[in-house]
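We close this part of the discussion by returning to an individual protein. In the encoding step, the backbone of a single protein was reduced to a row of integers, each denoting a local shape. The sequence in question and its structure tokens are set out directly beneath this paragraph.
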Amino acid sequence: FFEVWRLGGSYPNRSYPKIFNDEKVGPTAKKVFDEAQTLLRKIIDEKLIRGKGVLAILPANSVGDDIEIYENDERAEVNTILHGLRQQAEKLDKDEKFHCISDFIAPKETGIADHVGLFAVHCGEGAKELAQKYEDEQDDYNAIMVKVLADRLAEAFAEMLHEDLRKKFWGYAPDESFDPKDLHRAKYSGIRPAPGYPTQPDHTEKRTVWDLMSVTKNAGMGLTESFSMTPAASVCGLYFAHPEAKYFSIGKISKDQVEEYADRKGWDVKLAERWLAPILSYE
């Protein structure tokens, strides 16, 4: 929230709520925060912004660096495949594993009936109109604040849905009890990585998420040609319940993996290089 307003405190006052104690930005940070709270209360009381989302828990097993998703629990027919990338950059700890998201799903050959979750949520209904209202009133500050709050609400929605998934829908942690600080620190079991981010940097994997859950139909969300989500205040990703699942960064990858990934995706290498350009270890 504070980064959007370019409010960065100095150690040890960098994060909320310690940022309020920072000599340089503390007073401004507190003012912006209080004004955000006032607008948020108005949004809630008058129901000015609404959210919508969809989730799925589907039968799945890993095959190498891929995750096969099956048509049903009989697992006789593959519906589609989620493609993974694996870390390749040399590590200081020689015993550390080179991770891929498929590591957190039981391999097909084990015969274990595993699952993977998917979700897509947004808090965009009403946000664009409210921001436009403030812009029409020449109130750029509150127009920006609406967009910032909508974005934070979408992230909160994703956090809430993940908690509900762990405790109720999937139910692998029914007795979990964490306060907001623990949730923010992701002390719970499981992860929800998003396509296009460090754990799986390929944005095109969002299309699989969209198709599996009919996201546009069920949640009113879209994808642009560059695979940005609409509305802007949107979040999507995968759910992994494996107790050892953790976030990681793929880092740089070499051409041999790009060629192999292109083959798995049914792409030519040039297309793979285009979508994976930020993480290529070669020119």
Remarks:
- The helical segments are 26-45, 127-136, 140-169, 180-184, 206-213, 215-219, 255-265, 269-275.
